[in-house]
Write a structure and sequence with these properties.
Elements lengths: L1 H30 L11 H45 L2 H14 L8 H7 L3 H26 L3 H9 L4 H39 L4 H10 L3 H29 L10
Length: about 260
């Protein structure tokens, strides 16, 4: 009961906004019929479609996670490791900085046709698109986190005898961790966007594929059901990530603001 009470205290505003949006949408669709019933079906149609599609949506969820999770992990590990190497070497950072500035803003979705043409399978081409979107924010966050460490912390650490791996794991990485996690959060947002794009064009399964498939048949009740299910999945994963970040960076969290 205490946990439920805390939930309502923390998210009463969110629940009020969602309830208002639900009522307004229902009013302009099933209620007054102000919107096209084809493009904007009411919840009287979306609800049954969502329930009947749950087994398929759950299968699509696992298919999406099979694509997203390994790719995100590989992109995150690659971004952090390379970010540490570049961030700790000023001359290397200076040489690569213009290249990173030039390549990182390129939309990974533009590379989808090339990945489809080059990669041996649609799965790997989708992984390539998501990897690019995950890699750059984490690389940039790691580099920025390391280069922004105050020199006095490094000097004090060396006076205390922290060198080599000990300096890296006890001083540098913890100090850069907030920026690294910021990059990881941005990368996770990009990963969801690119996951949907990749599944719409380069896979035959997943939540993005489900939405695109029924959109092609103009079954917008199932499209909206898929969007609602996908939204719940995204929010759940982002909440889990936020909790992981708060537990990992507990010393940086303002409890009054968090």
């Amino acid at each position: 009961m205490a946990g439920l009470k805390r939930f309502f205290q923390n998210y009463s505003g969110t629940l009020l906004i969602l309830a208002t949006a639900f009522v307004l949408y229902e009013l302009v669709t099933d209620g007054l019929g102000l919107l096209s019933q084809v493009l904007f079906p009411g919840f009287s149609k979306i609800g049954p479609r969502l329930v009947s599609s749950l087994p398929k949506l759950i299968d699509c969820f696992f298919s999406s996670m099979y694509l997203l999770i390994p790719t995100y992990i590989v992109g995150a590990v690659s971004g952090v490791l390379l970010g540490i190497i570049i961030g700790l070497r000023p001359r290397l950072h200076k040489s690569l900085k213009p290249i990173i500035f030039g390549l990182s803003p390129l939309p990974p979705s533009m590379l989808t046709p090339y990945f489809i043409a080059v990669m041996p399978t649609f799965y790997l081409s989708s992984c390539g698109v998501i990897f690019i979107g995950v890699f750059w924010p984490i690389l940039s966050g790691t580099i920025n986190g390391i280069t922004m460490i105050e020199q006095k912390y490094l000097d004090n650490a060396k006076v205390l005898g922290f060198t080599g791996w000990k300096l890296l794991f006890y001083i540098i990485i913890p100090a850069a961790a907030p920026m690294i996690f910021a990059g990881m959060g941005t990368a996770l947002n990009f990963a969801f966007i690119l996951l949907g794009i990749a599944e719409m064009f380069a896979t035959t399964s997943g939540l993005g594929y489900y939405i695109q498939y029924y959109a092609d048949f103009s079954d917008y009740a199932r499209v909206l059901a898929g969007l609602l299910f996908t939204t719940v999945v995204i929010v759940s994963i982002m909440v889990l990530f936020d909790r992981l970040k708060k537990k990992t960076l507990f010393w940086t969290i303002n409890k009054d603001m968090g």
